[in-house]
Amino acid sequence: MNTDELLKDITRGAVDVVSREDLAKKLASGKRLRIKFGADPSSPDLHLGHSVVMSKLRQFQDLGHTAVLIIGDFTAQVGDPSGRDLTRPVLDHETVAKNAKTYTEQAFKVLDKDKTEIRFNSEWLKPFFASPAVGVSDFVNIAKSVTISRLLEREDFRARMKAETPISLLEILYPILQGYDSVAVKADVELGGQDQIFNLLMGRDLQKLNAQEPQAVMTMPLLVGTDGEKKMSKSYGNYVGLNDLPNDMFGKVMSVSDALMYSYYELLTAEDLAAVKAEHPMEAKKRLAGLITARFHDAEQAAAARGHFEQVFSRKELPAEMETYRAEKPGKLSYLLVAAGLVKGMNEARRLIAQGAVRLDGEKVAEDIQFEPRNCVLQVGRRQFRKIEK
After folding, report:
1. Which fold, 3-223?
2. Under CATH, which architecture does the 323-389 domain have?
């Protein structure tokens, strides 16, 4: 491809490109570019929303460039304010370290391991605060170059100030910390979700300050979660995890609305959208669920997940295989739900019962009844089953 064709191909689907001229120049240079993408391990799982940006990162890899995947083990303890109307809870180091271990494994479900450089931003950010002789003076030099008015240009900060919602000093500092990542790894291009544009542009500013050629910036659309409202996020509980089991992954995709399904096709597949819209919506959704499940597992497991879904939901049959739990003594149904591993705690059990999400042998349970041990099938929601034996 010539540069114009390459630029058109690589920016397909992007929301922001800053600037196209810079990116075209970098692509035409023949240099092996360093393409940066950062993710804070604020939860144990990467999800389909992350895969939108990582797929673009993989596209750069397929052109011969190097992906620099930054695990934000330091910035995760600060909390990214992007798109947030409240301050994130601060995570402890132990939780962040545990989450970070899973991120690298999951990332290679999308990225080419041989063309990926994994970096942890504690490598360069921790010394800022641990070495008074060197680190603090370096951070002061960076911080004094960024004005408060510049930081408060952020749309989410302006909205929170208008609503008189508190903004912590740590959140104010976050864009500087993320921006410095670009300096530390000498990024040529940085990718991120569209809510990250301010942070990515801060990276350009700090590279100029440090006499580096500023990175080109590209943002991708945010994937709406399965609730059809908010962006996909573990904290919102509306996500499809890259490590979800095939049946769960297939079932979650099948739960999205028809309108949202087409957005998933556009952002997560290379399918022809016009051809997809000509299909029956139910068949199109099953095909989408199959494509996504096959991508992160394999075709055989995707086919089995479709069979499971059709057996349980389309034909209203019980799954062929269910875990078994032995109930040895009478007790409240809420206790049985916890003991059988269907829910995490009594409050959740009682809430699900009150919502009508619990069934015994297919019959909806309206209250927290006293359960007498017997052979039956206990169901929570649409996808969780336990065979109860006495």
Report:
1. Rossmann fold (3.40.50)
2. Roll (3.10)
